[in-house]
Each structure stands twice: as C-alpha cells, then as structure tokens.
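Help!! Second protein's tokens look totally different from the first
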Amino acid sequence: MSNPKYKGYLDRFAMLVKKKRIDVAILCGGYTNLKQPEKSEAGTMADYLKPLLGEGVRIVIEDRSRTTPEHFQFAKGLIDFSPENKIFIVSDSIRFFKIYWMALHYWFGLNKDEILAEWLKVAKQLYSNPKKKAIDIELKDMKRFLAYKNVKIVVDKLHKGYKEAIHQLVSEVFEIEGLYDPKVMDMSLEQTRVKEEARAKFGLR
C-alpha cells in the first residue's frame, strides 16, 4: 500500500473490525485503475488487510462495482440482513449523506419521501441538542445518528480537504438523482469513465 493516506484508512478499518468483533468483511471496488487494469480496488484492499485481520475474519471481495450505487447493488446479495446481525458501513467523512441514502434505497427499498423523512429525524436529533449551536455541529455528532434498523454507518476521517468535499457535493446530486432517472445515471457513469481516463493520462493513479 503505497498511499499513506489510504494505508491509514485501512489500518483504522482493521482496528474497527477487531474492536467490533466483526467476522465477515465485504470489500467493494472494481477494476477502475486504468494504469493497472488487472487489479481491482477490492482485491488491493484485501491483499493489505488479510495479514492485519487474520484467519478469524472472512474477507469477501465484490469487484464488479465502479460507483457508489453499484457498491450497494452488488453487495446486497452478499449480506445476511437477519435482525440479529449487526452491519457496519464504513464511509469517509465527505460521503456519509450519499452512503446513508444509498443504503436506505437499495437495502431497505425506501422511496424518496421515506428516505427524506429518515434524514429529517437525523437533522432533528442533531439540532435539538441545547448545548450545540448549529454552526458547532461536528462529525462526531453525526456519527451517533447514522443508523437504520441493524445497519450503522461508521464515519472515517479519511478526507479533510475542501477539494474532496466540493467534488462529492457535485457528484452526489447526480448519483442520488440517478437512482430515479436512468438518463441521469448514464450521465454519472460517463463522467466516472472520463474522470478515470483523465487520472490515468496525467499519472494520478
């Protein structure tokens, strides 16, 4: 793992797996690196995590997905959603809204209005704390409320910069609206392809 930023991310993931005594880890990510087409994101993560997690954790690789919606689509069939199972989704610090929406859409079948109602509950919990002014809400406040039934989102501090946040603000509008409009989804997928080609051309991956 040559990127220290993502190495730290995976190290924290391994610590979470051990702390929560998770016995199955599903890693999502397809063959998106055009400079290394034989390696999937999920496979690369698995290679790094196997010695950290040990034999007590079963690693499942989902390597078809290219986008966040596809992560949820393809992972669904690999998960046992029985109520007695605790399911954790690890999200970075700028994608949690999109992650929350995708989970409710793909895994629980909620429609737009139902998802908005759930998000309103989250917002009310955040803003009802008398000790917190709206401007003082931090990521740690959000972590407590991002849950639905037996699924909980764990927010990691991977990204801290404004550049990443701006990129996600733009992309998540298309990815969420694409759930309801195939044309928008096609536009989002095309933009993903163009982005990856540009990253490969300029040596960013």
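Here's the second one for comparison:
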Amino acid sequence: MSSSPLLGSVIGGPKTLLRLEGAVLFAASIAVFAGQGQQWWLYPALLLVPDVSMLGYLRNTRLGSIIYNFGHSYPVAALVFALGLILGSSITIAIGAIWFGHIGWDRMLGYGLKYGTSFKHTHLGDLDKPKK
C-alpha cells in the first residue's frame, strides 16, 4: 500500500463522469437561478464567494482543508437552498443555487475536495500533475 496522499483519487472514466456531473450541476444552478427573478449581476457577483473558505489555509493545511471542504460540499448549499424553499424566499433559493453552481463549476474544472496534506491534493487528482 502506497503512502501517496492521492491514494483514493478518482481516475479514468469515473473522474470524467464526475467532471461532467459538475458541468450539469453548474448549468442546472443557472436554470434554477433564472427562475427566481433576481438581477443577473447577482450570479457572477456571488459565484466565487464560497472560495472565502480558502482562508483556513492561512492557519494550516489541515484546518484549511476542513473549512474549504465545508464550503465546497453539497450539504451546506442544500441547507441554504432548502431554507429558501421553506421560507418561500427567492433570494435565499438563488443564493443556494449559486452555491451549487460554484461547486459544479469547480468540479467541472477538476478542483475537488481537498486532502489535509496540501491544497493541491484533491479527490479528483493532484493539481500539480502535468496535464496530458
């Protein structure tokens, strides 16, 4: 068994499928956002807000990965989205959709959830690895 920090990273067809799922999620988030009647400038203005979770890396890599993964996983976005549905708040639904869109965008581009070893070690592979 290797001690590689990338042990368990997705490769091949499943990796391609996960990236395609990211693209579908990104597109679906735009469609849901469109149905909320919000100003279109809001989508690009808030799209990168989940990246604020990278600030945890200022403390250390382990904490950084925990906070980053919290901001880049589906449960928190789903909670915001569901809260919007429960409250009947189109702005909250729109924010949840944008959050899902950010996650989809990241996955589509190959930025996965982070391991505690390095910001560049993700479940979708090593970001340092040269592209073929």
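Reply: Different proteins will give different token patterns, so don't panic. Residues 12-121 form one domain.
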